[in-house]
């Protein structure tokens, strides 16, 4: 069994080298770097930069609202969502990031303090790697598990 595992490991490494594909660890780091840019664009309230990080067919799913599909719709929804200004204290903790070929998913917990609320919840992001090797958001959904108005 160990011999079979060793042969599989070597074969997988050679196949990755032969196809020019980055290793899973390299791909995971690239996804996390793209995620950091995504979080920065969201935190800064830059709707254009935020939308540019989506695929052409990307979907932004906000609880209680219709889905925004495509970069233009994502930018328009983000402009509305960001109009209140940036969160005062936005924190993201990665729960897991998993890469499979040209797709990856990321689960995170988040917390934030806005001008009128405290909120915490979860993000789910489905990433796609494009022909240009850039990782972009293909599906972005979040929900909140606790939201408290600031009195």
Can you walk through the features of this model?
The protein has 151 residues and is an alpha+beta fold. Strands 2-1-6-5-4-3 form a six-stranded mixed β-sheet. Strand 1 and strand 2 form a beta hairpin.
Largest sheet strand order: 2-1-6-5-4-3
The overall pLDDT average reads 83
Strand content: 35-45%
The ordered string of helix (H) and strand (E) elements is: HHHEEHEEEE
Outline the fold blueprint:
Blueprint: H1 2-19, H2 24-44, H3 47-52, E1 54-61, E2 68-69, H4 71-82, E3 91-100, E4 103-113, E5 117-129, E6 135-149
Parallel strand pairs: 1-6
Antiparallel strand pairs: 1-2, 3-4, 4-5, 5-6
Brief summary:
With 151 residues, the protein is α+β, with helices and mostly antiparallel strands. The protein has helices at 2-19, 24-44, 47-52, 71-82; strands at residues 54-61, 68-69, 91-100, 103-113, 117-129, 135-149.
Features:
alpha+beta; disordered N terminus; 151 residues; 6-stranded mixed sheet
